Amino acid sequence: MLFWEGMTEFRAIPELAGFRARKPLLVTEVDVVDPASGSVSTGQDILMAEGRVVRVGAALRDPEAEVLPGAGLVALPGFWDMHVHTFDEATLPKFLARGVTGIRHMGAAPVHAQWQAKLHGGDWQAPRMVFASPILDGPRPTRPGSIAVTTAEDAKAAVARSVADGAEFLKVYSGLPAEAYAAIAASGVPFAGHVPFEVPIETAALSGQHSVEHLDGLALGTSSREAEIRRGLSTLDPSDPAAMFAEFGRLNHLAATTHDPARLAALCHVFLERGTWHVPTLAVLHAKSTVGTPDFPLTPYLPDIEPALRPAWSRVGSWSAGTGEREVFEHSLHLVRELHRAGVPLLAGTDTFVPGHSLHDELGLLVRAGLTPLEALRTATVAPARFLGAGNRFGAIAPGMTADLVLLQANPLDDIANTRTVRTVILGGAVLG
To answer: What whole-number distance in Å separates Cα of residue 159 and Cα of residue 152?
Structure first.
């Protein structure tokens, strides 16, 4: 049985519009991987036209098609990064160059309205995108551009504003009061994001939060000292960010080191029953746990980091992660392993640190957590399609599917690191140069 069977589906995103080629394309003699089944069909031709896959088989012909020889290459559906923060248009080609043909924005900015319009224009070579609302946070937001929400009435107004501005789902955040969170959950608009400090993760799942980011609230919800840690969270002061994050780190470490497996098992049952997905963003947690060490993965890629995030990560040489961060990361690997063993569905997401590149880091870390290469591939292909209600258009290379493909030089079923061997990216049936 596939890991998502029986899960509640996310509301279908109506368009997922984007670029499509004007001329047919024929890729010849390529090995095609089906991430759903894990099967590999060797020596296949793939004919694409008008942005869709038309046929997959042997010895296909179309006199009108551009021909791309694919012998020795491995074809997969384009990858999705399901947790992205990017506001600079110059980053978008970097996603595509690394095989990421779809992204889910996790916090709206004014530029995103322009991007939505350009996507629907149809001639823009950019990843397909799904757009959140601005971050809906508590009365003292910690992120620029957030909407401050205190009461249920504030929440209803924020929801109405977000929907009117084109948000396809709502992004909830850590500081939301429980009353406001409940009003958002009752709005009927899909919502995802952090689990607020005032809201137990079980309540978030029962309220219909469709994805939990960063394993947020999970270490807390499975700690034998949850009540004590919650009291500490209630005293965090956003007016002093340095002190707040230091105390939050201490409480997070306490949660990680007081884990109760029975509590996790009970929560997994709730997640399965309610269709709650998780986006672990292990790449972020790994970076935080390795700063100041030779294992820190971002140093060679600082020029590619989203400009708004680059200054902070450029200063990593002046500080280092403590033992607590490393233990939190190792505990996160354990939580992902246990979620997966229980059948709770996972999505690959990165928080964007290095556009495109970090997605490959995330897949490798999911394998480190205990997934097979095939299972990790699913988190970036068929699982996003299923989550978005677009399984009839994305996540496979088959007739009628959107023609977003990645051609690799080696098979990632043999080694997940082979997802990095991108030779060619095809978007909407067009080869990207």
So the answer is: 11
